[in-house]
Amino acid sequence: MPSAEHESPVALVKLDPGLVAWLLANVFDVKVPDYHHARASSTDVRVLVPRTYHADGMLLFCDVSDRPLLAVVLEVQRGWDTAKRRTWKLYVAQLEAELDVDAGLLVYCPDVRVARRYRDMFEFGGLSLTLRPLIFTPNDVPLVVETDLARANPALAVLSAICHGDDGEVDATFPALAEALRALGPNRAILYYDVVLAGLPVAARSRWEAFMTSTLGHEYHSELFQKLAAEHETRGEARGEARGEARGEAQAILTVLDARGVTVPTDARERILACADLTQLTEWLRRSVTATTLDQILDDE
After folding, report:
1. Which residues on adjacent β-strands are paired with residue 68?
2. β-pair partners for 107
3. Model confidence over 166-204: pLDDT tens digits?
């Protein structure tokens, strides 16, 4: 599994921040202010105590002078974590206090059951700061099969294919998705193409690649798709080597903790194994030699 930093929806937003504006307006009926451009913001939230909380992504919608008009925190949440009731509030409160703008929390939950639990958790705000997270699931993303829509919004076309990757209907998105990539041009298309391959389940990814090679025929071997294939193969080899090295570091951390008798819950084990940041893994490995609790290892990332 990719680390949270490289989750497909977050990667798409980095390529096209307008995807967030589309989701806010079309899924949640949120009025997005007229803005000139959008830019990423630091995903670190620092508080007075020596600890840093790290969101998956933060986006600022700005006017022509680069003054923020609206801030959005981005999260991809695959599992259940009761701590999110407080940390999500912290993300939003910090942005509003720092930038003096409204801030929203946009959360993608691939599992509708997990999404339902988070919605229920925030249904009653409690006695402290009330938060209304904007939680969406694959069911909230339309199946994009119209070529014109895909060309106009390639990020939405990619997100649609990823969200419906386990559905038999996903194949219907392939023609429009291919046209969206063609409309982007070679240099940008390769970035979106990588997100498609990373986000689709194995079976759907195989059918997508077969579509690109056989159904499109000579078009796939055009200058555009030759570039896509060549660059993807090169990147794939590099990513494979990096993943192998990261996996080895993660296993080393778990081995050290096991030898020292430190209990590692399933969610923490999955987090360590999912991390692809070698610098972070090396730091965790260094801490695992002397730490007595998981918090001492995984905090302040």
Report:
1. 62
2. 75, 135
3. 988 999 999 999 999 888 887 788 788 888 888 899 899
Residue 228 one-letter amino acid: L
Residues making up the chain, counted from first to last = 301
- Phi and psi dihedrals of 253, rounded to 5? -60, -50
pLDDT at 104: 94
| Cβ–Cβ < 8 Å for 45, 94 | yes
3-class secondary structure for 77-93? CCCCCCCHHHHHHHHHH
pLDDT at site 139: 94
pLDDT of residue 6: 45
pTM passes above 0.85: no
**What does the block give as tokens for 154?**
């390639």
Whether the CB-CB separation of 155 and 192 falls below 8 Å is answered with yes
- Say what the pLDDT of residue 100 is: 93
**Rounded to whole angstroms, how far apart are CA atoms 105 and 55?**
10
**Token pair of 197, please?**
């391959």
User: Which portions of the chain are predicted below pLDDT 50?
Assistant: 1-6, 47-51, 218-222, 301
Burial class (CB in 10 A: 0-12, 13-18, 19+), 162: buried
Q: Give the model's pLDDT for residue 301.
A: 45
Q: What are the beta bridge partners of residue 75?
A: 107
Radius of gyration of the chain (CA): 21
Q: At what angle do helices 202-210 and 174-184 cross, to 10 degrees?
A: 70
CB burial readout 253-288, b (16+ within 10 A) else e = bbebbeeeebebeeebeebbeebbbeebbeebbebb
